[in-house]
Amino acid sequence: MLRRLLAGLVGAVVLAGSLLTVAAAQEAKKDGAKDAKKDSAKKDGKEISGKITKLDVDKMSFTIKTEDGKSLDFKVDDDVKFLGPRGGPSKMGIKDERFKVGAEVKLTLDASGKTLKEVHLPRRTGGNDKGKTKDKDKAKE
Questions:
Q1: How would DSSP label each residue in 75-131?
Q2: For residue 43, what pLDDT is reported?
Q3: Could you tell me the residue range of the domain that residue 112 belongs to?
Q4: Closest to 41 in 3D by CA, of 94, 120, 95, 104
Q5: pTM for the full model?
Q6: Are the beta carbons of 83 and 96 closer than 8 angstroms?
Q7: One domain for residues 26 and 55
Q8: How deeply is 106 buried, as exposed, middle or buried, from its count of CB atoms within 10 A (0-12, 13-18, 19+)?
Q9: Are residues 56 and 112 in the same domain?
Q10: Within this chain, do residues 77 and 113 fall inside the same structural domain, yes or no?
């Protein structure tokens, strides 16, 4: 009786270990595919980060100042994708409320570095509850 119980426990431990190994291998495979996709996107294009200094919605153009102090002008056409901070598309495009003077954006250009492909928008500001909780705590005191 004790031998059967012991053999059953050893079998359960071996089964659980193999299931965890398979799950870890599948997770690593998914992560590798995501990294490969990101790497290929970076190889195909050039990324630039900067702050918007000038915006002309009517002319569909804007200027950013990069971290190294350069001012770069860009023209927005129908092929340019505006993406939110989590990767979702913005339906408003250049008219999005997050795309304004002073906003930090990341741009993806084509391999030549001349044509704008994507604009990565910052998070929305305001609407958070941080200030409200502080005011409530002060009112309690």
A1: E--TTPEEE-TTSPBPSSGGG-TTSSTT-EEEEEE-TTS-SEEEEE--PPPS--SHH
A2: 55
A3: 45-120
A4: 120
A5: 0.56
A6: no
A7: no
A8: middle
A9: yes
A10: yes
Query: What's the structural domain count of the chain?
Result: 2
Q: Are residues 39 and 54 in the same domain?
A: no
Looking up tokens 């989590």 gives 86
Placement of tokens 């398979």 in the chain: 22
The answer on 55 and 12 residing in a single domain is no
pLDDT digits (tens, 9 = 90+) for 17-34: 787 787 777 877 777 665
Residues 71 and 108 in one domain: yes
- Per-residue pLDDT tens over the stretch 76-135: 998 999 998 888 898 888 898 999 999 999 999 998 888 899 999 988 876 555 545 444
* DSSP code at position 61: E
Residue 97 lies in a domain: yes
Tell me the residue length of the chain: 141
pLDDT at 137 over 80: no
- Report pLDDT digits (tens) over 2-22: 888 888 888 888 888 787 787
For 92, residues 6+ apart whose C-beta sits below 8 A from its C-beta are 82
- 141 pLDDT tier (thresholds 50, 70, 90): very low
Instruction: Give the tokens for residue 138.
Output: 């002060």
